[in-house]
Amino acid sequence: MSTVIAVSAGNIVVWAVWAIAGFACLASGVAVISFSNPFYSALALIGNLGSLAVLYLLLSAEFVAAAQVLVYAGAVMVMFLFVIAYVGPQQETPWKGGPSWQTVGAVLAAGAIFVEIIVVLGLKAGGRLSHVEPVNATFGSPGWIGRLFLTDHLLAFEITSIVLLIAAVGGVILGEHTKRRDVGVEDAG
Amino acid sequence: MQGPGVVWYVGISAFLFGIGALGVLVRRNPLIVLLSLEIMLNGANLALIAFARSAGNGAGQIFALAVMAVAASEVCVGLGLVVALHRRRLPLDVDKLSELRG
Fold first, then answer.
1. Distance (Å, whole) CA A171 – CA B32
2. Does B45 contact A at CB distance below 8 Å?
């Protein structure tokens, strides 16, 4: 009897954590696209990524949650904030001058994408998603992920490293090229 | 599995993907377009991890980590482009950057 009560209490706690994290996730997502100042948008995106990490923990993906906080909320967002501070304040009114045909089309397109996702999920996967496989405690742990990466998914691991290398080279080339062009413009003037 | 079923997480991921798509289509500042793109990628990641939990299989989590690496690369190149635009004193507005339009 006591175990039944404990299980249901834990169930309620998980539901509550899911509700809080999901609401924070959606609210900060809306905040990202509605702030006119990019700095506030980036701060809202950090909240979005943090609440997503909580959802990953509820889905017993511990390593992905840790990587989310370290890579996204740490490295990527710090780089974003640096660039926003470098570019300077850029005020942009999100919905200026009433809804133009572009804004109306964009809202319609996003709504269509959204309805499509809901319908596809409801029709195709709704029946199968009610079943959840039981998993053991190592599911999602760093050792388990590392073993998968180095055995079954070795090709994905190596391709990821090549993609990161190409992106780093591309960033360096973008910075170098504009510097040369700036010098050329100054010489011509 | 305690708490809400997998389909609730997939619902949140669909919402996130819709919000991100709306931001990409509506906003004109390339920095906020990049931020909205991150929201779309994270919505896809949440769906992948929810499906991995549903199937009891690790491939979804591996895929999510690969998507994270691709997102980091994309931010690197995108922010490099924004800095290059700023250095050449071009307007930070995706509507005015239409030189490559066919």
1. 19
2. yes
**Helix (H) or strand (E) segment spanning residue B68:** helix B59-87
Out of A61, A94, A109, the one facing B61 most closely (by C-beta) is A61
The CA angle B22-B23-B27, to the nearest 5 degrees, is 120
Predicted TM-score of the model (pTM): 0.85
Among B19, B53, B93, beta carbon nearest to A33: B19
What's the CA dihedral at B15, B16, B21, B22 to 10 degrees?
70
Residue spans of the domains in chain A: they are: 1-73, 101-129, 140-189
H helix runs in A95-153, sequence order: 101-120, 126-129, 142-150
Both structure tokens of A145: 């992920």
**Does A106 sit within 8 Å of B26, measured CB to CB?**
yes
The CA dihedral of A13, A17, A22, A23, to the nearest 10 degrees, is 100
What would the two tokens of residue B21 be?
């798509």
Q: Report yes or no for ipTM above 0.85.
A: yes
Q: Per-residue DSSP letters for A157-185?
A: HHHHHHHHHHHHHHHHHHHHHHHHHHHHH
B49 closest CA partner among A82, A135, A6, A79:
A135
Give the number of beta-carbon pairs within 8 Å between A and B.
254
Q: What's the pLDDT at A94?
A: 58
Which CA distances in Å does A145 have to A51, A61, A73, A141, A160? Answer: 22, 10, 21, 6, 15
Lowest mean per-residue pLDDT among A106-110, A146-150, B43-47, B75-79: A106-110
- Write out chain B residues lying below 8 Å of A38, CB-based: 29, 31-32, 35
- Nearest-by-Cβ selection for A149 from B28, B62, B81: B62
Residues 140-169 of A with CB under 8 A from B: 140, 144-145, 148-149, 152-153, 156, 159-160, 163-164, 166-168
